C-alpha cells in the first residue's frame, strides 16, 4: 500500500474518533441524562466497531499486497526493501494511533458510566435545593423556616389585654433526606431565644402485609386531628384551631416514641406510643405515656374533588402532673393575656381524648368541620372533667389553585402557585373563614369562649407567603386576672419563608 493512502486512513479514523469524543469531553462538567448517556454509548460503540472493521480491512489489503509482491517479485532491490520497511512502519504507526484513540474512547465511556451512577442532581422544586444521587439512593434537603408575626389587640374592657407587638413565631434550621428506604429529619427551633429540638426522627418505608407502611422512631408530630398533625407553616390560618388546642394530650403536639403508619391512595391508619416531647422531662420522674390512633378515608377522590371522613383517639397515663391548668390562646400566640381558662384541676391521673373530622374540596374550594373532647381522670372527685371544642372552617383560592390536600395523610399542606410573581403572574390569593368554640364549663371554675376569624393569604411564590387574620373573640373566664365576659379584636399579619 502507498504511504499516502495509509496516512489518509489513519488520519480519517483518528478524526472520526475525535469528532465523537471532543463534544462529550467539552461538555463533561454537565451530568448527562440517562437517555443522553444511552445514546452516547450506542454511538461510541458503533464507532468502535466501524474503526475495528476498517482496520481489519487495511490489514487484509496490506497482507494481500505483501503476498502479491512476494509471488511476482521474489527478488527485490534495495530500494524496494526500504520502501517495504517504510510502509510497514507507517502501518504500525497507524495501528498504534487507532489503538490509543480506542483506549481513550473506552476510558471516556467508563467515566460517563461511573458518573451516571455516582453523580449528583440538584432539584429546586421544593423551593430550596434537594441534592440526590443519579440513582436516587441518597437525597438531602436543607430545611429553613422563618415565621414573623405582627399583632395588635384592641376593644377589650381590660387595658392590659390591649397590647401590640412582634415576635419570631418560628425560626428553624434543619435538614431531611433519604438513604434508600430509610429517611431522616432533624429541625432545631430558635424562636423566643430558646433552642429546642422539634422534628428529630428516623423513618423506614416498606410494605406490611402488602400495604404501604412507614415507621417513625424519634420526636415527631402526633397524628391527632387535622390541624394537630400539621406543621405551623402548612396551616391555612395563623394559629391552630380550637379542637387541636383544647383536645391535645398533656405531652403536647409532639411526642418522642414510636409511630406506625399504613396508607393507600385515599386512606391511612396510624398507631403510636409516645412519651414526653423532647426535653420536657427533667430526669426526676417517669414520662407521661400516650397511646394514640387516627384514621381517615376519602370515599370520593378524583382530580377535581374529595370527601374526607376521619377520627382519632388517645389514652394517656400521667405520672408527674400534680395539676392541669389549660389556657388556650384564642387571639394570637403573642398576646398571652387573651386566653380561655379551664381552671386548675388537681390530682389528674390520666386522660382520654377523641375526635371526629369531616370535610371536602371541589376545585379551589374547601371546608372542614371538627369536634374534639378530652376527659380528665380525677380520682375522688365523683366524676371526670370534660373539655370540649368544635370548629368549622374553609377557604377559596381566587386564582384557581387546587386545594393542597394530602389524601395519604388526611391533612392540608402548602399550595402550589400556578402563576408566581415575577413569572407572568401575581401569585396565589386565598380567602378564609373560621369559627372556634372553647368549652371548659364542665369544671366548677372552667370558662368558655368563641372566636370568628376572617383571613386572607397571599402566596407570591411557593416558599413565601403573607397571612392576614382578623379575629373577633369573646372570653368568659370564671377565674384569673380577667374574669367575666370580655370581647375584643385582634389583627395579625404573618410573613413566612419556608422550604
In short:
This protein has 499 residues and is an alpha+beta fold. The protein has helices at 3-26, 34-72, 78-118, 242-246; strands at 120-123, 130-133, 138-154, 164-179, 182-189, 196-208, 211-221, 254-263, 267-275, 289-301, 305-317, 323-324, 327-329, 339-341, 345-346, 350-362, 365-377, 385-397, 405-406, 411-412, 428-439, 448-461, 464-477, 484-498.
Helix content: 10-25%
Which secondary-structure class do the elements indicate? alpha+beta
What is the strand content? Answer: over 45%
Count of separate DSSP helical elements: 4
Radius of gyration: 35 Å
| Uncertain runs | 1-30
Annotation, overall tally of beta strands: 24
SSE string: HHHEEEEEEEHEEEEEEEEEEEEEEEEE
User: What would CATH call the homologous superfamily of the largest domain?
Assistant: Porin
Average predicted confidence as pLDDT: 85
CATH topology of the largest domain: Porin
Number of domains: 2
Q: Main β-sheet: number of strands, strand sense, barrel status? A: 16 strands, antiparallel, barrel
What is the general shape?
Answer: elongated
End-to-end C-alpha gap: 70 Å
CATH architecture of the largest domain: Beta Barrel
Q: Provide the CATH top-level class of the largest domain.
A: Mainly Beta
Within the largest sheet, what's the order of strands? 3-4-5-6-7-8-9-10-11-16-17-18-21-22-23-24
Amino acid at each position: 500500500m502507498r504511504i499516502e493512502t495509509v496516512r489518509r486512513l489513519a488520519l480519517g479514523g483518528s478524526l472520526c474518533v475525535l469528532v465523537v469524543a471532543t463534544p462529550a469531553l467539552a461538555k463533561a462538567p454537565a451530568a448527562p441524562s440517562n437517555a443522553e448517556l444511552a445514546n452516547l454509548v450506542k454511538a461510541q460503540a458503533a464507532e468502535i466497531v466501524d474503526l475495528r472493521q476498517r482496520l481489519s480491512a487495511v490489514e487484509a489489503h496490506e497482507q494481500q499486497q505483501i503476498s502479491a509482491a512476494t509471488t511476482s517479485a521474489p527478488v527485490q532491490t534495495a530500494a524496494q526493501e526500504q520502501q517495504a520497511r517504510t510502509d510497514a512502519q507507517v502501518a504500525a504507526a497507524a495501528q498504534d494511533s487507532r489503538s490509543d484513540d480506542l483506549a481513550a474512547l473506552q476510558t471516556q465511556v467508563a467515566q460517563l458510566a461511573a458518573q451516571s451512577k455516582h453523580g449528583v442532581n440538584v432539584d429546586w422544586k421544593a423551593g430550596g435545593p434537594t441534592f440526590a444521587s443519579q440513582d436516587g439512593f441518597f437525597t438531602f434537603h436543607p430545611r429553613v423556616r422563618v415565621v414573623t408575626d405582627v399583632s395588635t389587640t384592641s376593644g377589650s374592657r381590660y387595658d392590659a389585654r390591649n397590647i401590640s407587638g412582634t415576635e419570631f413565631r418560628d425560626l428553624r434550621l434543619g435538614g431531611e433526606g433519604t438513604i434508600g428506604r430509610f429517611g431522616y429529619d432533624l429541625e432545631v427551633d430558635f424562636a423566643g431565644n430558646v433552642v429546642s429540638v422539634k422534628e428529630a426522627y428516623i423513618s423506614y418505608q416498606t410494605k406490611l402485609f402488602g400495604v404501604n407502611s412507614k415507621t417513625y422512631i424519634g420526636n415527631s408530630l402526633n397524628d391527632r386531628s387535622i390541624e394537630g398533625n400539621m406543621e405551623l407553616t402548612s396551616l391555612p390560618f395563623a394559629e391552630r384551631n380550637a379542637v387541636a388546642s383544647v383536645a391535645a394530650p398533656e405531652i403536647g403536639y409532639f411526642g418522642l416514641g414510636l409511630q406506625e403508619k399504613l396508607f393507600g391512595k385515599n386512606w391511612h391508619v396510624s398507631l403510636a406510643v409516645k412519651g414526653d416531647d423532647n426535653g420536657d422531662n427533667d430526669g426526676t420522674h417517669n414520662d407521661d405515656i400516650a397511646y394514640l390512633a387516627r384514621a381517615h378515608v376519602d370515599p370520593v377522590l378524583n382530580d377535581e374533588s374529595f370527601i374526607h371522613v376521619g377520627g382519632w383517639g388517645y389514652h394517656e397515663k400521667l405520672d408527674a402532673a400534680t395539676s392541669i391548668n389549660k389556657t388556650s390562646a384564642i387571639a394570637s400566640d403573642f398576646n398571652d393575656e387573651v386566653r380561655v381558662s379551664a381552671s386548675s384541676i388537681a390530682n389528674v391521673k390520666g386522660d382520654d381524648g377523641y375526635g371526629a373530622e369531616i370535610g371536602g374540596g371541589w376545585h379551589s374550594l374547601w371546608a372542614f368541620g371538627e369536634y374534639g373532647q378530652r376527659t380528665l381522670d380525677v380520682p375522688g372527685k365523683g366524676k371526670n372533667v370534660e373539655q370540649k371544642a368544635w370548629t368549622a372552617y374553609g377557604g377559596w383560592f381566587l386564582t384557581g389553585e387546587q386545594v393542597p390536600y394530602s389524601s395519604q395523610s388526611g391533612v392540608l399542606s402548602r399550595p402550589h402557585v400556578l402563576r408566581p410573581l415575577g413569572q407572568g403572574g401575581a401569585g396565589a390569593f386565598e380567602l378564609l373563614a373560621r369559627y372556634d368554640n372553647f368549652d371548659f364549663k364542665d369544671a366548677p371554675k372552667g370558662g368558655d369562649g368563641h372566636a370568628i376569624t376572617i383571613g386572607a393569604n397571599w402566596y407570591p411564590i411557593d416558599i413565601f407567603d403573607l397571612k392576614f387574620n382578623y379575629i373577633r373573640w369573646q372570653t368568659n373566664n370564671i377565674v384569673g386576672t380577667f374574669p367575666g365576659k370580655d370581647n375584643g379584636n385582634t389583627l395579625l399579619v404573618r410573613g413566612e419563608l419556608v422550604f
